[in-house]
């Protein structure tokens, strides 16, 4: 019998990592299609352009509060995995938001991949 409630994954990628996120989504589109997805604004737009069949809700862009929106969803128990492709080499105006988001994923002990190689390893292990 079909499940009524799908679990939710969050997708976030910094600008220099967005191509990797699109490739990740394309590669695993069949798995990702079993989940509801939320994403920061620009990341979500890029992923939806590549994989329009996915059930993805874009939130605000990261620097405008998107990381914090995803953090709030994590705190409310509504996100069950975080794929956050972080750019460690570029300064970011919203660095504190990035830290807050990864901190909440740790606090609530949700699976979190901070780079593409980890994401490819864990995406098939998530329970939908
Ligand atoms: O800045 C981000 C995460 O910190 C990503 O935001 P965008 O997906 O809107 O570019």
TrEMBL record:
It comes from the Bacteria. One of its GO terms (cellular component) is cytosol. Its EC number is 4.2.3.3. GO terms for molecular function: methylglyoxal synthase activity. SMART domains: MGS (SM00851). It catalyses: dihydroxyacetone phosphate = methylglyoxal + phosphate. Keywords: Lyase. It holds the Pfam family MGS. GO terms for biological process: methylglyoxal biosynthetic process. The active site is at residue 67. Residues 1-128 form the MGS-like domain. Catalyzes the formation of methylglyoxal from dihydroxyacetone phosphate. HAMAP family: Methylglyoxal_synth. PANTHER family: METHYLGLYOXAL SYNTHASE (PTHR30492:SF0). This is Methylglyoxal synthase. The gene is mgsA.
